[in-house]
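>> received
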Amino acid sequence: MTFPVFQVATVHFVLRGSGHLRIGMLPATSFAAPSVLIVPAGEGHWVGETGDQAQVRDAADQCALLGDGLVEFTAGSGANDTLMLCGALPALYNGALDLPDLLQSSVAADVVANCIPGYVFDAMAHEIASAGLGTQAMCQALMKQGLIALLRRRWTGNDDGQFLASALHHPRLARAIAAIIENPAGGHTVESLASLAGMSRASFSDHFSRTFGQSPIDFVQKARLRIAARLLRVTDLPMKVIAQSVGYAGPRPFSRAFLAAYGHGPSGYRGMAKSERLMLSAEPGPL
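>> returned
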């Protein structure tokens, strides 16, 4: 089944069966239940089989109302066909759930969901099997729960390029990282972080730089601005409050640092986020 290009991220929770996913012109990748397929915004894709006997169906021609506002797309005919719960995430929720962590590349797909409790998939299957009043709201809640579980794994699991994956192999470094994330406004210095890690200043700096490819203070700065960017996207807190909450003395030094990191000042960044919310204000949920 082929899907059109959506201007929002598309998420497929695979509840039963297996198959292949192809995004854009990239080679098809295999998947099997239970798993989650994530397609970045602006990318066309199809799901199905790759054999010569496979028949192509356009999703727009294979839809019917299932119940409670859900739309059912059917391309197979047997009881053992692949079953997926699909949804779209407007930019509003991309920011709130920090989806860029999952979509670091434009081809992120087939995120194996063994970190999501099995009951989430079971509950999804039960809901769509007997769709009725409240099914859409329940599916939305279950999909969000699954995505949050994936993001937690992204932060604490073994994916390449993430900080805590390396830190977990260095428990003393992990204590310093946790302190920065839990209290970004704290007066963190190399000395204070080294003390938390139970290491000398020189040894801590050396181990941190070799593990994360940046100095401890660079990491503090990036962590503060990352949290600030999230607050700008999803809250209406005054700029002064955000600046202070992430450790800046006032709006001016915060604005300079934010502009250098993101290419836009805080006000401009927030304005773009609000524009996206106006254009994509629909509640995320099953397609």
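>> Confidence is low (pLDDT under 50) at residues 92-98, 103-113, 157-161, 280-287.
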